[in-house]
Write a structure and sequence with these properties.
seven-stranded mixed sheet; 22 strands; alpha/beta
Amino acid sequence: MYLYRDLATISLDLSGESLHKRNYRLEGGAAPLKENLAAAILLRAKWPLTAKEGGTLLDPMCGSGTLLIEGAMMAGDIAPGLLRDYFGFLGWKKHNPKTWELIIKDAELRRENGMLKLPTIIGYDADSSAIKIAFDNIERAGLRGKVHVEKHDLSSLKALPSMQVGLIAVNPPYGERLGEESDLRGLYTCLGDKFKQEFNGWQAAVFTGNPDLGKQMGIRAKKYYPLFNGVIPCQLLLFDISSEKFIDRTPATQNERRVQAALTQIAPNSEAVQMFANRIRKNMKHLKRWSEREDISCYRIYDKDLPEYAFAIDRYEQYVYIQEYRAPKIIDKEKVLQRQQEVLAVLPEILNVPPAELFFHKYARREKLYENNISVQFDKFYSVKEMGKTFLVNLASSEIDIGMSLQLRNLRILLQSSAKGSHFLNVFATDGAMTVCAAVGGCLTSKTIVECESESSWVRRNFALNNILEKKHHVVISDMFLWLEREKSRYNLIFAELPELEDSELVMYQILKLLLPDGVLLLTTQDKHFILDPLLFPDFKIEEITKQMMPEDFTRPSKMQRCWKIY
């Protein structure tokens, strides 16, 4: 009975002891997992599916063997409470002993059958006393000969020929009770290195109370889940161990340091932060239905919806790209930093995105890829899909254009639908995304004009990702103004994204002289000073299509990106 003021609550104890006690563990190691927490870790890591396919379960730091035993019970269809000799309901007067006996017999039969098909389950630990405890627990669980444990240092971990590709589940120390954080960074680095060297193609589940230590592994997590180990807030990090998920351990960029610093802060819970979090959830609820219906996986989630949080937040499949609008000078710098930390702290959980896949930058006009001052590392780019096409996008660097502008999605759709049978020209190109759309739309030939080798490489990589042959689709490296002045060929479909220019009228004349009489020029710019005066081009019809080209995920009118159709 629980009495609170004038209210009494009477509860019937049907379990006796806590249900996490399976009766196989009489002694734990130095920092044991509860049995039900170990089961939750394995379920989140989809171990039952891996076990059904015959995959191996490996715990390289097994301690008292809880993960191994729970994994064996799942794989062997063994009821978790089968070893218990008492439940509270046995003393209940409405308890039916005959029905209970039938349930027990059925569970025993399922265990007998399940034991015949157990996959390989192996655990290692550097502590010989932990191995002895694990062996005793395995014995009491009735799994002797089915779960193998032995003493091994992490440094000697390797995949054995007898192991089928499967799941590594591990609960390494994380600075609580077993050691300080500074002493454990090398351990996590070693664990990550062993994963990379020996277990390519495997899945991994790492349970830690310190996500910063998890980053030492050098592998990008595909998912993470918040869990508690007693009163300690922890995270379960899930990994696909494959080379494309490996992180280069070069010194952290300013962006990475900023994200890491924010994530070390205590998760904020002020009213303002909750309003921001609720707005993100509301937007995602709408956008999820729309994006699935339209087959769109890259879209804007949030754009300065709340004045206090002046950010633009974009989703590029599993990645999240955050840009912060420049704050007025009257706003205190500490307040600006606090807002950054609050946004970076709450987004991973709201959007279910690992911190390593969060990219933060100040909102700024990106530079073009002039070879003299920017070194481009394409291995830092990320490939994403848009309506069946694949593009490389630059999320990590704040110095250069991101590529595949989300705001131009409808313009790409229009261009692709207009391209069939055309001869296409793309000037002031950076990544060639528009040329890819024209090629997929059926243009006969295309010419993409870029100003440096890096841009040319970006275009060609996008061509290769979409199986576009350069035999009909040429990339030209040239000074843009000289090329426009000298070009003699004419085209019936042209796309131009004009940068800020001193003499935009002259450039427009040069572009329009390349347009065939029945041709169409699709023009866009972010230059807020650009004026397109119809009186200067009397032979052409000029139609502003900014409003029509505004995607559904860009709800506020844009003063940054304007579009025209000229014919």
